[in-house]
Amino acid sequence: MNYCVYCHEAFFEPVSWQFIAGLSESLSFCEECSSSFEAINGECCRMCGRSFRLFPEQYRQKQCCTDCVRWEEHEEWSGVLTKNRSLYVYNDFLRKVISTLKYRGDAELVQGLKTPFCKLYKKEFRGKMIVPVPLSEERHYERGFNQARLMAELLGGEIVSPLERVIHEKKQSKKSRKERLNIQENIFQASKEAGKVKGKSILLIDDVYTTGATIRQAAKVLREAGALEVSSMTVGR
């Protein structure tokens, strides 16, 4: 018997030959919670990974969504980010899961995402240098951990910290779309470890990709520090 890491209800794993042989990993979410995740599959924007089935055709330009087209048309942000890939659509259930993780301190929830997160990493980004998006000191103190760091640790590779968050701003979840896109000043700067990214392909890790503003600000600093290219991977999109 297992207990769901989110709803804490007891459940039995379905019996299969893989289960009997010990080849399947223990499930972390019950069937009801597991079915509430909405996996991103099928056609998606080649840059941000947004599923094309979730928005009208007029917001698509060939293999990109119009948001990414606008980013690439902007002189300052063009070419900064190679691509993003995410596990799940940021629906109401995933919002609650991430909120529980970030604001109630339930860091164990991260372990429930290990298998699919590692699978996505091996499929899309194997071998890239792993960089978690940092929190401000104030936010880190409030939570006691950085959720992006916990997610990065699931991947088992070397983690470097070439970024520092220098501006503590209003929570992204409280901002309007216009506010997120209106970047006045980069919230990141290079840290003492920035030299490690020179000539490397970097993978940024964060919990959610919304407009791409935070990811691109981090990527810009890394590119300026000499990174060969920068991609990102998140749980939600």
UniProtKB/TrEMBL annotation:
A Pfam family that the UniProt record links to this protein: Pribosyltran
Domain Phosphoribosyltransferase: residue ranges: 155-235
Classification via CDD domains: PRTases_typeI
Family listed: Belongs to the ComF/GntX family.
Protein name in UniProt: ComF family protein
Native organism: Fictibacillus fluitans
